[in-house]
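Priority: medium. Attachment 1 of 2:
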């Protein structure tokens, strides 16, 4: 009744209250607040048309949660302009990640890095914590600030949804895993400006180390500090797809020092586009080479994998052109997968 009697003033007051509360109640479906959105379904360009400044190594597209995702290994990274794509004073970085590594591997794996001294990092550290670091290396005599959660229980090839939020207005940092807030830290320092022009995705900002060694899907940088409700909604939006992926359990094989297998018996895979794969009569490096599997070729896995020479080997049948050809081929070696799981 009070607002009704105020007439136009009441409408203005209602509008002011709505605007004041908007950052905390923004609909999870609003896309206009995404500064950079990388779904990878149409390659490496952002949804607003942003193009990579550079790509190093050989990050490759593979099957993601609903479409395509981007896999990184060794020194792989993709660079985007920082201007217009991230706000160091307030925002949210959220993404789905499928690590190639165990959470207790004691190694660093970077998702996104920006700048050096005074910059910021979102990564897994050597103490097995998933963390953010702001004011990296303690620039201007101020300490680093960040938020962290231990992920030593993470397993290879399992998808997780991760969200980091930050606000210099609220002076807080938050970290969410699989839709649940796991940590919050406050800070008092003034964060320095970051002058580096590029965001490094998939590695440290030196571009040559601390590779993600894993797969990213649906990476978004928002210009808002998303609420816990919005984060939970984003995580829940893909529950059905993630359950279906989890049901297709990769083959279990004990193969010391080999890459963890990501394939299933009777599943399909593409040959990595970086080069052809040898097809052998028997599993192992001593097996006679009987042919080549061209980059991008589609194969069907026929039987349980075999461990030989610190490599997981699969008996496969070529599909499409050359269909019916059968032999053994390596799933991957070192940090690189040669067989990329796909759903058809």
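Attachment 2 of 2:
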């Amino acid at each position: 009744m009070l607002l009704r009697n105020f007439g136009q003033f009441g409408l203005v007051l209602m509008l002011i209250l709505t605007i004041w509360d908007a950052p905390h109640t923004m609909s999870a479906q609003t896309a206009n607040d995404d500064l950079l959105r990388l779904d990878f379904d149409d390659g490496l360009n952002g949804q607003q048309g942003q193009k990579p400044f550079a790509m190093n190594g050989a990050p490759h597209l593979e099957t993601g949660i609903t479409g395509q995702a981007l896999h990184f290994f060794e020194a792989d990274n993709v660079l985007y302009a920082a201007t217009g794509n991230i706000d160091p004073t307030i925002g949210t970085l959220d993404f789905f990640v499928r690590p190639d590594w165990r959470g207790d591997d004691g190694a660093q794996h970077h998702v996104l890095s920006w700048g050096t001294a005074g910059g910021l990092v979102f990564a897994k550290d050597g103490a097995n914590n998933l963390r953010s670091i702001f004011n990296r290396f303690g620039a201007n005599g101020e300490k680093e600030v960040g938020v962290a959660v231990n992920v030593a229980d993470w397993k290879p090839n399992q998808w997780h949804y991760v969200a980091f939020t930050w606000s210099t207005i609220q002076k807080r940092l938050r970290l969410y895993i699989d839709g649940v807030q796991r940590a919050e830290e406050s800070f008092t320092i003034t964060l320095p400006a970051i002058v580096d022009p590029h965001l490094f995705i998939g590695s440290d900002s030196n571009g040559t180390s601390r590779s993600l060694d894993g797969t990213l899907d649906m990476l978004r940088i928002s210009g808002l500090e998303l609420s816990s409700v919005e984060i939970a909604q984003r995580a829940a939006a893909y529950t059905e797809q993630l359950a279906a992926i989890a049901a297709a359990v990769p083959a279990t094989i004990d193969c010391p020092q080999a890459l963890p297998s990501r394939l299933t018996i009777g599943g399909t895979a593409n040959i990595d586009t970086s080069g052809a794969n040898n097809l052998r009569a028997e599993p192992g490096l001593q097996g006679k080479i009987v042919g080549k599997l061209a980059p991008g070729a589609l194969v069907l896995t026929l039987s349980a994998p075999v461990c030989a020479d610190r490599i997981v080997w699969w008996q496969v049948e070529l599909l499409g052109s050359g269909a019916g050809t059968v032999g053994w081929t390596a799933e991957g070696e070192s940090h690189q997968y040669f067989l990329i799981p796909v759903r058809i």
